[in-house]
Amino acid sequence: MVESGEDDNDPSQETITFLYKFTDGSCPKSYGFNVARLAGLPETVIRQARGKARELEMITLKKQVFSRVVSAVGAKPGVLRETLSEALKSLRVD
Q1: More confident position, 67 or 6
Q2: CA separation for the pair 45, 55 (Å, rounded)
Q3: Cβ(76)–Cβ(87) under 8 Å?
Q4: Which residue, 25, 29, 40, 73, has most beta carbons within 10 Å?
Q5: Residue-wise pLDDT tens digits, 35-93
């Protein structure tokens, strides 16, 4: 939502009000990159940030998979096999 001050002809008086809602858990979609673009950050900075975000998502996914595999090591062979299979499937990225 874009608000303007008393003088609608002066673009320096415009402000942006970002509306948000707090919920439990992680956010499935972030609008931070769109906000960065609206705020006028250079496209090169936004691209670099997207790359870093992808790297962090992969690191998090790998840690989750590792944790599941380690916790299943003492399990019966069938349970271990199933856990490993699910872990490998979750690592596939397009």
Answers
A1: 67
A2: 15
A3: no
A4: 73
A5: 888 889 999 999 999 999 889 888 888 888 888 777 777 777 777 778 778 877 777 65
Structure tokens given for 21? 């809602």
**Which residue range is the domain that position 81 belongs to?**
2-91
Q: What does pTM read for this prediction?
A: 0.54
Q: How many domains does the chain have?
A: 1
Alpha-carbon torsion (75, 77, 79, 85), positive or negative: positive
Identify the sign of the CA torsion 79, 82, 85, 90: negative
Report in angstroms the alpha-carbon separations of 71 from 14, 66, 67, 75, 91. Answer: 54, 9, 6, 8, 17
Contacts of 86-91 spanning 24+ positions with Cβ under 8 A: 90/61, 90/64, 90/65, 91/61, 91/62, 91/65
Tokens of 6: 């008393």
